[in-house]
Design goal:
The chain has 350 residues and is α/β, with parallel strands linked by helices. The protein has 13 helices and nine strands. It folds into three domains: 32 residues, no CATH class; 231 residues, Leucine-rich repeat, LRR (right-handed beta-alpha superhelix), CATH 3.80.10; 57 residues, no CATH class.
């Protein structure tokens, strides 16, 4: 008997329910099927906005207008400029001219990873976007220590810096560790973390999070011991061991500019073969290290760039000394120089 009741109940549950529905006159009663789905309701995709469609069209033809982008982007709002920057990065069109043309002073987050931006464009960008809180320069092979130093000088609110991802960028990140450590006026205190920001004369004043997935163990231990204020590769959790909240920009698996293109059709940059980057685990094998020749070459380039202003200054000094020596030895040149000074003095008197 119980088995028969169970079978009849199952058959009853499988039959759709009939709900009486009155007609317009109210006298007759019709029955309509009321199907109840056991699963959650199906969410309909929201159609893209007209602005997103327009930005997608501009993004598809970005290479045609990139030469005149500085004049075109003047009237664009800051969010549209950010979206075009994200599209240009995915289409491998982001370089110094493009990023400077699209830069906006209200930006707080910027992702130029994997782009052709160099130190020149990065320093100009930092002069415009002084309110940056998070910056991603990973896999940028044209950025050196000079570019990062320029960012630290202009962007005093920078809290998150993302770097590494390729051999050249890893080498640049290793060289930058020295300028990230603050240097103090007073070295007699117990802890530099207890000092005011005015007593820090150099270094990353506000930097708190450094995302460098391929950092080696020894470098990580040394940097964490010398600069405990900066957390390297924080785990994606609400709080760290010291109780500080980890911003989402510091999570290693987050793409900073992804929210700005979420409503843009991916076909906009599919033609360039863009693929979202995957954060690789730290490598300890010898193949991940640069060769000795490459290290020497990068070190030479870094030293050459650092000494270039000094060489130019020495050239100017030699030119001035040569001109003075020529005037002192040549009688005609000395006479012309004295006549020029006399004419200037007479002109000033009148």
């Amino acid at each position: 008997m119980e088995k028969g009741k169970v079978k009849s109940a199952a058959v009853t549950d499988s039959v759709p329910k009939l709900d009486p529905v009155p007609n317009s006159s109210g006298s007759d009663r019709r029955f309509a099927f009321s199907l109840q789905s056991p699963g959650p309701p199906i969410k309909r995709l929201k159609p893209p906005s007209l602005v997103s469609l327009c930005v997608g069209v501009v993004g598809r033809h970005l290479e045609d207008i990139i030469a005149d982008l500085e004049e075109i982007a003047v009237t664009f709002p800051s969010d549209i400029k950010m979206t075009l920057t994200a599209v240009a990065r995915r289409r491998r069109l982001l370089d110094d001219n493009a990023i400077v043309s699209l830069a906006d002073g209200s930006w707080e987050i910027l992702d130029i990873s994997g782009s052709n931006v160099s130190d020149v464009g990065l320093i100009k960008l930092a002069g415009i976007c002084r309110s940056l809180r998070a910056l991603d320069i990973s896999r940028c092979e044209n950025i050196t220590v000079a570019g990062v130093s320029g960012v630290l000088q202009h962007c005093h609110s920078l809290e998150t810096l993302r770097c590494g991802g390729c051999p050249k960028s890893d080498y640049m990140a290793r060289c930058c560790l020295g300028i990230l450590k603050p240097k103090l006026h007073n070295v007699d205190g117990d802890s530099w973390e207890e000092l005011d920001a005015t007593e820090i004369i150099d270094g990353a004043h506000s930097l708190r999070w450094l995302v460098w997935p391929r950092i080696d163990k020894n470098t990580l231990e040394d940097f964490s011991a010398e600069c405990p204020r900066i957390t390297v590769n924080p785990k994606p959790s609400p709080f760290t061991l010291r109780g500080a909240q980890v911003p989402i920009e510091a999570w290693p698996d987050i793409i900073l500019d992804e929210p700005f293109v979420k409503d843009i059709d991916p076909e906009t940059w599919a033609m360039s073969g863009f693929r979202p980057r995957r954060v690789s685990a730290p490598l300890s094998s010898p193949t991940s290290e640069l060769s000795v020749a490459e290290k020497f070459r990068l070190a030479f380039l870094e030293r050459d760039n650092r000494l270039a202003p000094k060489r130019a200054k020495n050239v100017r000094q030699h030119q001035r000394r040569a001109e003075k020596d020529f005037v002192a030895m040549d009688t005609r040149a000395k006479a012309l120089a004295l006549a020029s000074k006399l004419s200037k003095s007479l002109h000033n008197r009148h």
